[in-house]
């Protein structure tokens, strides 16, 4: 029994006329009526006859349906497994099954390995033996499969077999011409790409196209030794960003390591020191012009330091009887009392080099720099002995050590301890240091043998403030009405630096007012500004509040005038300054070191005078918060007062 296998694509040039099958000679069967196209042809639905159309075929039809021959090119990839080739459509399955199975196997292998030339050659050989040259030509010219010289030969034979003899001859001539021009070179034949290009160009010309390929055009088309092929790779945005990020990261890491190596090398060898001279933080001996006459308000400290000056001028005077001068002197006192000026005055009086460094200049980011600078400082001082070494803010490097601290934290202090204890008695080097917090220093640093003497530099008293004011008034044009004693009495607790600032602000105000001299009003204004803050002339205050403030300050002034034991009244004002709407100034005769019970009660009375005045004028229920300063100034009093 002969069974007909329907086809989804038939080419007129491949289907012989004698293979026409008459449907009226076949008996209808359920296989035909229930036919389902092969799975491989479902991708070409436009070329596959639908099942419903197969069922409508009448047995009296004369021929099978034939598709447009131009659509056959879509079956060049899978012509066997899809049953598209006419050779397997009109024969009995019993005689063609072995050959069809072999072709399907080789076709699947070739399609699954498009870049394997051996698999493609095997499929081409099977097609050639099965007398299917047209499929070889179509498949080869697609350019999607690998090829070699044997596949090219089969392609040329297939062209001859399907009647395209001229086309095959032209490709063979091109190969021969190429082999002659490349004689002696490793490339003795046309490449597979060139052969495929020639075939496509000939096919285009045979169909009326304008494409043509010559030997000149093919020579070097794909690059050779004389005419290299330049390739430009078009990268994606992500690839470009990744490439630049990698480049920048690598460059940053390399630059960082280079800078670290260069910094370590410069620090170790001191190249910049030799080229550019000494850096600013390196100790340099200098001659000082300050004298003891420039220092005021600390007479006792000057007397103690006079011994150092005499030792530096005449060392034999002290060593004759076996006495030794202290190796180190520690200056202790509040900020601005003249500790640094005292050290400069000692160097200026003795006329020896003065080496000065701040405690914050030793340590830096690199480990060991602080200890190195300590060694350099004392080595330079020994080289220019007799000399004076002064370190300001010693607590920056001489703080108390802790067992939990790392070793590199204590290197600078340890080196300082070694240099201080390593001096010879007659080395002629005296070490001075200053600090505001002596309680923070390490005990090993302040012990006798390193710092044999501690000199206290306190705040100046009234006499010392008068001397300091006289010293700084010499640098300005002061009026004859200036009374420095009143300014000194009204500035208890002022240091020398604050008094210098007072004189400077008074001179600036006088210059701003275009005055020819600095008057007493300018000094009073500067003192009040330092004590209470600047005047708030733009403050918006109602007339009622101004009147209430005047009564309040008048109460303070009246109690101060008529209370026994109170500080004498100086002045009262309702000009707002700082946080206060008004203020009453009292001027003591001298600095008060201690106070009696009578004086404490008098001070309390003066503070309560403002509250009492408000009660008398406005009543107990209208007393303002101006009396709250009593609790602030005397927190130990009973809150009910």
TrEMBL record:
Residues 325-461 form the AAA+ ATPase domain. GO terms for cellular component: mitochondrial inner membrane. InterPro entries: AAA+_ATPase, AAA_lid_3, ATPase_AAA_core, P-loop_NTPase, Peptidase_M41, Peptidase_M41-like, Yme1-like_N. Its cofactor is Zn(2+). It comes from the Eukaryota. One of its GO terms (molecular function) is ATP-dependent peptidase activity. Keywords: Hydrolase, Membrane, Metal-binding, Metalloprotease, Protease, Transmembrane, Transmembrane helix, Zinc. In the N-terminal section; belongs to the AAA ATPase family. This is AAA+ ATPase domain-containing protein. It comes from Orbilia oligospora (Nematode-trapping fungus). The lineage of its organism: Eukaryota, Fungi, Dikarya, Ascomycota, Pezizomycotina.
């Amino acid at each position: 029994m002969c069974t007909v296998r329907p086809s989804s694509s038939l080419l007129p040039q491949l289907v012989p006329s004698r293979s026409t099958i008459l449907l009226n000679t076949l008996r209808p069967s359920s296989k035909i009526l229930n036919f389902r196209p092969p799975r491989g042809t479902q991708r070409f639905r436009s070329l596959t006859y639908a099942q419903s159309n197969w069922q409508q075929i009448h047995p009296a039809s004369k021929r099978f349906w034939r598709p447009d021959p131009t659509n056959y090119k879509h079956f060049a990839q899978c012509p066997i497994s899809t049953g598209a080739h006419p050779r397997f459509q009109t024969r009995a399955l019993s005689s063609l099954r072995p050959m069809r199975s072999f072709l399907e196997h080789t076709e699947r292998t070739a399609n699954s390995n498009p870049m394997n030339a051996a698999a493609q050659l095997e499929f081409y050989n099977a097609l050639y033996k099965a007398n299917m040259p047209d499929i070889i030509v179509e498949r080869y010219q697609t350019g999607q499969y690998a090829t070699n010289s044997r596949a090219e030969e089969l392609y040329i034979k297939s062209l001859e077999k399907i009647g395209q003899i001229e086309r095959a001859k032209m490709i063979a001539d091109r190969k021969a011409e190429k082999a002659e021009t490349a004689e002696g070179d490793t490339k003795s034949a046309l490449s597979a790409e060139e052969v495929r290009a020639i075939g496509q160009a000939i096919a285009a010309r045979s169909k009326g196209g304008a494409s043509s390929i010559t030997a000149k055009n093919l020579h070097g088309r794909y690059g050779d030794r004389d005419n290299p092929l330049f390739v430009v790779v078009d990268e994606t945005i992500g690839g470009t960003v990744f490439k630049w990020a990698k480049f920048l990261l690598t460059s940053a890491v390399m630059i960082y390591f280079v800078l670290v190596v260069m910094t370590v090398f410069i620090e170790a060898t001191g190249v910049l020191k030799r080229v550019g001279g000494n850096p600013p933080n390196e100790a340099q001996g200098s001659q000082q012009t300050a004298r003891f006459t420039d220092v005021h308000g600390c007479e006792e400290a000057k007397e103690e330091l006079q011994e150092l000056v005499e030792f530096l001028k005449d060392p034999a005077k002290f060593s004759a009887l076996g006495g030794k001068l202290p190796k180190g002197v520690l200056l202790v006192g509040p900020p601005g009392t003249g500790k640094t000026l005292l050290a400069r005055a000692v160097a200026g009086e003795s006329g020896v080099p003065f080496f000065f460094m701040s405690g914050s200049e030793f340590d830096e980011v690199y480990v060991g720099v602080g200890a190195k600078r300590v060694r350099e400082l004392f080595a330079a001082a020994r080289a220019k002995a007799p000399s004076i070494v002064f370190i300001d803010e010693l607590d920056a490097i001489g703080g108390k050590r802790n067992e939990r601290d790392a070793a590199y934290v204590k290197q600078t202090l340890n080196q300082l301890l070694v240099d201080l204890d390593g001096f010879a008695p007659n080395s002629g080097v005296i070490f001075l240091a200053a600090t505001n917090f002596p309680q923070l220093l390490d005990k090993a640093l302040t012990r006798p043998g390193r710092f044999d003497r501690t000199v206290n530099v306190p705040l100046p008293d009234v006499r010392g403030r008068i001397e300091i004011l006289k010293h700084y008034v010499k640098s300005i044009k002061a009026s004859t009405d200036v009374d420095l004693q009143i300014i000194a009495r009204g500035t208890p607790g002022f240091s020398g630096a604050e008094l210098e600032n007072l004189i400077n602000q008074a001179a600036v105000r006088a210059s701003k007012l275009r005055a020819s001299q600095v008057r007493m009003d300018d000094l009073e204004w500067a003192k009040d500004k330092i004590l209470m803050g600047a005047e708030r002339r733009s403050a918006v205050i109602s007339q009622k509040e101004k009147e209430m403030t005047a009564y309040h300050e008048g109460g303070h002034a009246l109690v101060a005038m008529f209370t026994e034991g109170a500080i004498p009244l100086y002045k009262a004002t309702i000009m707002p300054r700082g946080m206060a709407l008004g203020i009453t100034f009292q001027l003591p005769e001298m600095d008060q070191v201690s106070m009696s019970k009578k004086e404490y009660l008098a001070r309390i009375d003066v503070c309560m005078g403002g509250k009492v005045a408000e009660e008398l004028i406005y009543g107990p229920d209208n007393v303002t918060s101006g009396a709250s300063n009593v609790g602030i100034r005397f927190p130990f009093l009973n809150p009910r007062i």
